[in-house]
Fold this protein.
Amino acid sequence: MVRKWAGNLLGILNVKLNCSGPLPPEDEQRVILIANHISWLDIMIILTMYPVRFVAKSEVLSWPLLNILCRNVGTIFIEREKRNDTIRVNQDIVKALVTGDSIAIFPEGTTSDGTVLLHFHASLLQSAVIVQASLHPVAIDYRDITGARNTSVAYVNVTILESLRLILMQPAIKAELSFLDPINCEDKNRRELTRLAEHAISEALQLTVVRKIPERLSDLPSVSQ
């Protein structure tokens, strides 16, 4: 039902979705999707293709209509102003994975305009290490009718209603959802997994990674990995 609702909304907004790459089987256990984040549309296009619960900022609860959808799909909300809330959220993710649900995480922690990839944070991938999850990087891209990157869909420095207005003004939006090769979690820590997923998505989208803090040597996986 949720998949149909999300697909119908994309149709209303004239979003043309193209999906490529190997989707994890829907009966596969302990699946985590890790994706870049551009717009609230990201939630719709992922839900259209794969049944999953999201980890989202608590502010989403104030968004009209989308808050209802997010509640109905069992979204795990994180309070970003509480520094230690990631401990609770990791515990909730582990419980969800063990009971058979799949989870989607946006490790940038915020949205970009789609022309760069923001540094991926590793905190929520401790759950992947604990349960030895099947980790699937997912690259999201939006294009306009000319084929250029469509920054008008980005949910950056606008309200949700302003974002909706900008999206409705577009003649058509092309959404590209690319499922990349899964990452083996065995013998890797959360930082290694995060950097591997970040590299895979930046390569797929041909985007530069913007870092706010210097990369530590311990964050980087070895060449053999």
Q: What stands out?
A: The first helix runs from residue 2 to 12. Confidence is low (pLDDT under 50) at residues 214-225.
